[in-house]
Design brief:
246 residues, Rossmann fold, seven-stranded parallel β-sheet
Length: 246
């Protein structure tokens, strides 16, 4: 691999959104390091797109740092995305400490781990882009979303603070805030007719999102086309947080 190859790291790289981002980056001629916990899907996707699998627990700061080091070895390290996340719908009174810790670790600690290592690496190099995943619940008050709102609200604050810290080093930091997206994580909702109908009704465009729609914006943010965008929390929620149609 030559020194001019641009390399990107995707945590959650074999997931529905992460894999779609990885394919888009690969199609654009870039090399992708796929970070994730499960070896087989990482290897399969890496073989498909010519990427590099890297098995890790994204909650572990040291393991994420090693993944960043691996990406740096493979070419010009130009950006990273955290596509790791979870969905947890229950009121605060029904949320155990164990569930709270798990949601915070999965959604916020993974984002912090990526900013910590990838942000520093990009700042020492020629700059680049970080993309984090928030949620519509990070800024809209939705019932039974207390714990995920706490985690995603933290991601949004992290996004803005890191963007401010890294701007003068040429590093952009942005987050996406989707509504409900048709992924395996959302299966408890999408597989229940009444729950899905209720969710669709909350989105003014009358449907839920697709992984590829979210990936299209994530890939754009990672690459040079978005070189004047930083500190933004970009909603992809079918208008749920911005408009009312009735």
């Amino acid at each position: 691999m030559n020194d001019t190859t641009r390399t990107y790291l995707i945590l959650g790289g074999a997931g529905a959104i992460g894999s779609s981002v990885a394919r888009r980056l690969s199609d654009a001629g870039h090399h992708v390091v796929l970070g994730g916990r499960t070896e087989e899907p990482l290897n399969e996707l890496a073989e498909e797109i010519g990427g590099t699998p890297f098995q890790l627990d994204a909650r572990d700061f040291d393991q994420v740092a090693k993944a960043v080091d691996r990406a740096k070895e493979l070419g010009e390290f130009s950006g990273a995305m955290n596509a790791v996340g979870s969905i947890e719908l229950r009121p605060a009174a029904a949320t155990s400490r164990e569930t709270f810790d798990a949601v915070i670790e999965t959604n916020l600690a993974t984002a912090f781990a990526l900013v910590r290592s990838a942000g520093a690496a990009l700042a020492r190099g020629s700059g680049g882009s970080l993309v984090l995943m928030s949620s519509a619940a990070g800024s809209i008050g939705l019932p039974n979303h207390e714990v995920i709102a706490a985690a995603k609200g933290g991601v949004e604050g992290l996004t803005r603070a890191a963007a401010a810290s890294l701007a003068k080093r040429g590093v952009r930091v942005n987050a996406l805030a989707p509504g409900l997206v048709d992924t395996p994580l959302a299966e408890r909702i999408t597989s229940n007719e009444k729950a899905l109908e209720a969710s669709v009704s909350m989105h003014p465009l009358g449907r839920i999102g697709t992984p590829d729609e979210v990936a299209s914006l994530a890939a754009w943010l990672l690459m040079d086309e978005a070189s004047w965008v930083t500190g933004a929390i970009l909603p992809m929620d079918g208008g749920m947080g911005q408009i009312r149609t009735g």
